[in-house]
Each structure stands twice: as structure tokens, then as C-alpha cells.
Amino acid sequence: MNGIDLAKSTYFSSLGITGLAAFLKSDNPPLIKQLWVGAFLIIILPAMFTSHLYSAAVDTSATDKFTSLGLGLDQLQITLKSLFFVQNIKRIRRILLQFETFHCVNCCGVRALEILSRKAKFIKRIQNTYNCASFMCFLSWILAPVVLSPEGLFLTRNVDKMMKALPPIYPFRIDYFPMVQIVYLIETIMTMGALMHFTSLNLFFFTTLVLLCVQFQILNESLHNNGRRKAIRMNEFVIDHQRLLRICQEAKDALSPLLAVQLLISLLTICFAIFELTMINEDYKEGISQIIIFFRKSTYTVIIFAELLLYCWLSSELQNSCDSIREGLYFSPWYENLKNTSYKDYIIINCRAMRPFKLTALFLINIQLSTFLEGLCIERCLEGSSDSSSFCQ
Length: 393
Prior knowledge:
Structural class: mainly alpha
Number of helices: 16
Distance between the termini: 44 Å
Oligomer: single chain
Radius of gyration: 25 Å
Strand order of the largest sheet: 1-2
Shape: elongated
Order of helices and strands: HHHHHHHHHHHHHHEEHH
């Protein structure tokens, strides 16, 4: 498999077994895939969101309220992302890169394939790491009731022990055998489905933005001569550059509403999760219970941190990749082509590259690494300053 095929396969592999890849490949995916996706988007994800909001309304403990509210907001985010993906599938397809149609890829030849192969392998490693982290989060949430109260969940009909394994957060009675076990099995399936969509959508957008950055790298590489090939012609360079900028703008327009929801809900969820971690010692007196609950909540918090960090980091990387065109032009042998190319072409390209490209949340807030730090109040603490920077700066 060459670099182009390997890079393309990362788009579909990043969507995992959610069934969304079928919608990306075809306008009319198989019926079984449509039913699979529809079951999650119409039934499972909204049911989880509703149940957690109901739990937040009826819980008496402040910690339980924050836990349910954080999970409910997170399920809402996953549902909105999945629905947006399906409803805007044609728009998302336009963001996908057809590498073989770019002049710079054909100009670089083997070098372009090497870059694509190396970056595709890097993406695979990130995907595997993120999938493993999500799987650990899934295990921590599902196995916590089993470890905390195995008798209450499987071996007894005592109501008190059952409630310790699975608290009564449903609008119907579950304090009898085998209703506790049935609800536990349903929750396991629903949690697995929610985490699948959570992980796959994040990895898909991660893959798209990383390969956009790679395309800018190949475009810069094509400006230089070597012993086996000539540098790209300026008119072809301009065509590729403008096409990449249009794709970036399409990605920005498509991701802008999602990033707004992402930023707001992630910050709220992180605040709730950190508060819950501080309350573990008060709510759980037994040593093993504290360890299990701490592991359960900390894995969930780390996943939310990683999700927000990925988007902010990739936005900064895409901005740097767009800005790198100026540096690539400066260090290219532009002085050798002055007889065939006017100064005007270089000046126009350089001026266009000077306008920074940034992903935004509803075109109001720039998404970048500094946004991640500001949102968590880390930058303010480190500087010890009383003046807080604005998100819009």
C-alpha cells in the first residue's frame, strides 16, 4: 500500500465500527448500516442524554448531581456531533483530500509518498492510543459496580445491596431481580455505543486536520529542486495553494458550530469532573471504594482533557502550516526563476499567506493552544497576573 492509499484508509478506519464510514463512502449505504447508525442517533444516544438529565434532577447528593449533569452534557455533545456528521456528509466529503490530483504531490513523487506514509503511521499510533484510553474509560465505568458490589449485582436479591451496585436513577422500579441485571446490561451496551461515537468522530476530525497539515508540508517541499526532479511551476503552486486554502475554509465553516459546542461543554464537564474528584474522600470511606471511584472518574476526566487539547493543538498546527508557506517561498530558489516569473506572483502569494488561518468557535473565539490554557485558567495562574486575556485575542 503506497502513501496515498494508506493516507486515505485512515479516514475510514478512524470512524471505527460506528457505521458512519458507510455514509462517507456512499450516498446510499447498506440498509443494515443505516439501521445501525439510526439506532444510536435516534434511540441510544438521546436516551442516555435524557436519563442523565433525569438523574441530575432527582439526585440529592451534590456530587451525584454534578456527575449526572456532566455525563448528560457529554452525551448531548456526542449526539450533536453524530447528527451533524450525517446531515452534512456531502459537505464533509468536500474536505477530504484527493492527493493524486494535487500538482505538488505529482511533482514530489516518491518524497510525497514517503511523507504521507510516515504521517499515516503516526496517525495510526495516535488512533490506537486514543482507542485504548477510551476502552480503559469504558472498563472503569462498567466494572465499577461489579467490583464495588458483586453480590448486590449478581448474587443477591437484597434491595439495599442492589442499590449500592446500581443507584435508582430511573423513572421506574429496578430494585428487584432480574431488573438490576437487565438495566446493567443495557447501560453497558449504551455506554459502549456512546464511547464508540465519541472516539471515532474525534479521530476522524483529527485525521482530516493532520493530513491538511501534511499537504502544506508537501507543497513546501515541491518548491525545492533536487537531483531527480525540478521544482513545481509557479502557476501550479498557486493552484494548489488556493485549493488548499479553500479546503481549509470549508473545514473552518463546517467545524465552527461543533467547536463552539465542544468548547462550552468540555469546559463545563471538566469543571464538574474535577469537583467530583475532590469529593471522593468525603463520599467513600472504604479504601478500595475510593481507589475504584477515583480511577473511574479520573479516566473520564483525562479523556475530556485530551479531546479539548486535540482540537486546540491541531488548530494551532494548521495555522502554523498555513504560515509556513511564506518561509517555504523565502528559502526556495526563487531568484533562479525571475526570468520566467514576475515579482508580483511571489508578492501576492506571500501577502495571502500572511493572513493567519484559525479555526474558530462560531467565528467569535479562536481555537488554539492558548485558548486551552486560558479556558483552564492555567496561564493566569502561571503568570500571577490579575489581568486575564480575552478569548478573542
